[in-house]
């Protein structure tokens, strides 16, 4: 499968670009665009972006002045269209491209060719009419005809596809399928020569990510604990992209280092990929920072930073063997992580200290680069753009160790300041939450391209100057031409060539500042517990934390209830002190969130938090923040969103039946469901937002689409049933 782009007219006429694997293609005046036209007044600096995952190709206008024309229809553009110009419906700024489509920007004309069959690939690029479907595609799980749903990918010989209905079933209850596979003791070998996987007993879910679940498991017949990660392709797969994925995974399995989570095994069956990893009994760096108020003192951060770089240096310099064709093999040096972020740094407890271990080494990015993800899926952005340099978008295929240096420096920046390296990300996330959709690559790109790095010493003046200088060098960016060798040389001089060079510079900076780089024997690093006086304590009775409303007979408000799943068991397990910290962190999250400007009442009760807002959009934005980022790694949150009429008591308390209804909704269980229709998926026990019909009616249309029907439920103390909708992570 290939996508070809040929410039048929304009200053760059004759240029041709061919893509046989996922990539991104930037057009504009900037030097790091694939087609750079710095002197064309019609072209914006970043004009449009192509996201390519053969055979799919999507074009997005990047808020250009004049827009981009596809087959005579204008997409995007800040300038109003002139007379006779046909604008895309609803001012759309993106569209999927088909074989033979023409793109026009100013005098530049480009032609798209999409070819499925490599044997018929024409290097001179002929613009043949679109092929008719010849192959019937069936879902590998339920067997129904999914030819139309599978799209062009399904037409590739040997491809497999899981229909949307089956994907929803697996997504809602992935443990059922995983248990079925693992209990067979030996996974089925397939044409991709996946290794044999012995049986495991699943103990509990650890984490739900954007592409699957992670489970804690025990190897059958032993006490050995492992983590099992599952991933489900969102597109039709074929033997070529499965083999490509297997090759990358086999490469990553060769990494063996104390500061890297060990990759033990992997397998595939019934469309589901799963990976057996070393189990880390601890928490990720993101949760650790949250527990410590968002950042760490330099002295506490230093040993963690160097431990992380120990693992990354090993990966960047390791000798790796790979098979290139048949039994022929070759050796190359170094692996790039490509997705460094706090959540991919796990902390293991060893002798009263935290040992950092890099996780997810290449799994998610290998999944993407093998073409197993869907560029058309809203919000399907693999990785975390808050830690990306600009070349992660402009030079997607040619990332090198200096790219990892930038990303891990961005993580260190957050460790020391509690903030991201650029402005614009939080504003983007809040705006999208209010509008009810997930940001896409082009929106993240706009933030990255238009917001320079904030110097770390401006955010935290207490950071020693030598350390600030080293981190700021690691975060340098520039526009780089599309040449792989030039890119590596430019970035090596601009930043540090790899993690090892960065580590040496950090050691010198720490020594110059008089900071120890080893763990103090008498003062082990542990999560800091804030002073009791600054934290609201757990209470059995209601405690009003904020009220800014005048007593009145009644008014309509947005009600948001938040509680923990099995909160009583949680308190018994973690103790009152830990629970007090959790309550305090929830309170801080509510009060510091941008939606707090619309917060009119807040109280805590034995049944959870009640936050009352004047606007439903503000309540929804806050609720989404709890699903997006957990308050504590071990806290499982449930939320209920309702709109109704309440009474304001003489002391500013919010009273009435609708308040009780909201609390009952938050606590509903599957057994409260009344004869759910067949199409309704099981109710998730936690990490969910349940919304009532009045709440949905007051949300924006985009926000409404985020919810799916959950069915009708009995509510304790109410005679009438309540129809609910659910949004889950």
From TrEMBL:
Keywords: ATP-binding, Kinase, Nucleotide-binding, Transferase. Residues 558-666 form the Guanylate cyclase domain. Gene3D superfamilies: 2.60.200.20, Nucleotide cyclase, Phosphorylase Kinase, domain 1, Transferase(Phosphotransferase) domain 1. Residues 519-538 are annotated as: Disordered. It comes from candidate division KSB3 bacterium. Its main location: membrane. Pfam families: FHA, Pkinase. GO terms for biological process: cyclic nucleotide biosynthetic process; intracellular signal transduction. PROSITE patterns: FHA_DOMAIN (PS50006), GUANYLATE_CYCLASE_2 (PS50125), PROTEIN_KINASE_DOM (PS50011), PROTEIN_KINASE_ST (PS00108). Residues 200-499 form the Protein kinase domain. It is a single-pass membrane protein. One of its GO terms (molecular function) is ATP binding. This is Protein kinase. Residues 25-75 form the FHA domain. It is found in: Membrane. One of its GO terms (cellular component) is membrane. It comes from the Bacteria.
């Amino acid at each position: 499968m290939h996508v070809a782009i040929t410039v048929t007219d304009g200053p760059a006429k004759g240029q041709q670009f061919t893509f046989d694997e996922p990539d991104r293609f930037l057009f504009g005046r900037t030097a790091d665009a694939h087609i750079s036209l710095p002197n064309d007044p019609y072209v914006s600096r970043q004009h449009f972006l192509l996201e390519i995952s053969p055979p799919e190709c999507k074009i997005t206008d990047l808020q250009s002045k004049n827009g981009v024309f596809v087959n005579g229809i204008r997409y995007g553009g800040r300038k109003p269209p002139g007379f006779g110009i046909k604008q895309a419906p609803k001012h759309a700024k993106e569209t999927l491209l088909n074989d033979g489509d023409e793109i026009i920007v100013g005098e530049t004309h480009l032609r798209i060719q999409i070819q499925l069959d490599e044997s018929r690939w024409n290097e001179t690029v002929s613009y043949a009419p679109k092929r008719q479907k010849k192959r019937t595609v069936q879902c590998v799980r339920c067997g129904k005809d999914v030819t139309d749903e599978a799209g062009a990918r399904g037409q590739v010989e040997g491809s497999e596809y899981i229909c949307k209905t089956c994907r929803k079933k697996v997504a809602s209850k992935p443990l059922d399928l995983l248990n079925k596979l693992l209990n067979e003791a030996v996974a089925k070998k397939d044409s991709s020569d996946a290794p044999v996987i012995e049986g495991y007993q699943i103990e509990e879910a650890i984490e739900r990510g954007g592409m699957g679940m992670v489970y804690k498991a025990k190897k059958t017949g032993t006490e050995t604990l492992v983590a099992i990660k599952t991933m489900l392709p969102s597109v039709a797969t074929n033997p070529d992209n499965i083999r490509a994925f297997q090759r990358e995974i086999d490469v990553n399995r060769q990494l063996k280092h104390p500061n890297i989570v060990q990759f033990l095994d992997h397998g595939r069956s019934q469309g589901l990929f799963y990976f057996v990893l070393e189990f880390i009994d601890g928490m990720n760096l993101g949760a650790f920072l949250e527990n410590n108020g968002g950042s760490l003192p330099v002295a506490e951060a230093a040993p963690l930073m160097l431990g992380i770089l120990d693992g990354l240096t090993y990966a960047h310099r390791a000798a790796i063997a790979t098979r290139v064709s048949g039994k022929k093999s070759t050796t190359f040096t170094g692996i790039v992580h490509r997705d460094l972020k706090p959540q991919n740094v796990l902390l293991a407890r060893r002798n009263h200290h935290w040992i950092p271990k890099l996780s997810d080494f290449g799994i998610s990015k290998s999944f993407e680069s093998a073409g197993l993800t869907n560029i058309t899926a809203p919000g399907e952005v693999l990785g975390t753009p808050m830690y990306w340099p600009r070349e992660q978008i402009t030079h997607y295929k040619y990332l090198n160790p200096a790219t990892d240096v930038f990303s891990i420096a961005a993580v260190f920046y957050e460790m020391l300041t509690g903030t991201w390296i650029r402005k614009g990300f939080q504003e983007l996330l809040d705006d999208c939450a209010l509008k009810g959709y997930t940001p896409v690559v082009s929106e993240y790109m706009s933030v990255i391209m238009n917001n320079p790095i904030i110097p770390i010493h401006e955010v935290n003046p207490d950071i020693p100057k030598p350390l600030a200088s080293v981190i700021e060098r690691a975060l340098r960016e520039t526009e780089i031409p599309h040449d792989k060798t030039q890119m590596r040389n430019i970035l090596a001089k601009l930043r540090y060539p790899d993690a090892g060079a960065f580590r040496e510079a950090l050691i010198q900076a720490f020594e110059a500042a008089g900071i120890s780089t080893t763990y103090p024997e008498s003062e082990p690093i542990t999560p800091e517990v804030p002073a009791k006086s600054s934290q609201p304590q757990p209470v059995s009775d209601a405690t009003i934390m904020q009220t800014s409303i005048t007593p009145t007979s009644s008014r309509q408000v947005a009600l948001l209830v938040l509680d923990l799943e099995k909160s009583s068991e949680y308190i018994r397990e973690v103790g009152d002190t830990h629970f007090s910290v959790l309550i305090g962190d929830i309170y801080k999250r509510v009060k510091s969130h941008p939606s707090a400007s619309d917060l009119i009442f807040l109280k805590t009760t034995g049944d959870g938090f009640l936050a009352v807002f004047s606007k439903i959009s503000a309540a929804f934005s806050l609720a989404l923040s709890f699903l997006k980022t957990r308050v504590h790694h071990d806290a499982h949150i449930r939320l209920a969103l309702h709109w109704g009429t309440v009474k304001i008591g003489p002391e500013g308390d919010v009273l009435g039946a609708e308040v009780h209804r909201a609390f009952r909704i938050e606590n509903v269980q599957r057994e409260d469901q009344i004869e759910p229709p067949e199409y309704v998926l099981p109710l998730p026990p936690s990490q969910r937002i349940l919304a009532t019909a009045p709440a949905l009616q007051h949300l924006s249309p985009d926000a409404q689409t985020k919810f799916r029907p959950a069915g009708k439920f009995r509510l304790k103390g109410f005679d009438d049933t309540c129809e609910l909708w659910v949004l889950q992570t």
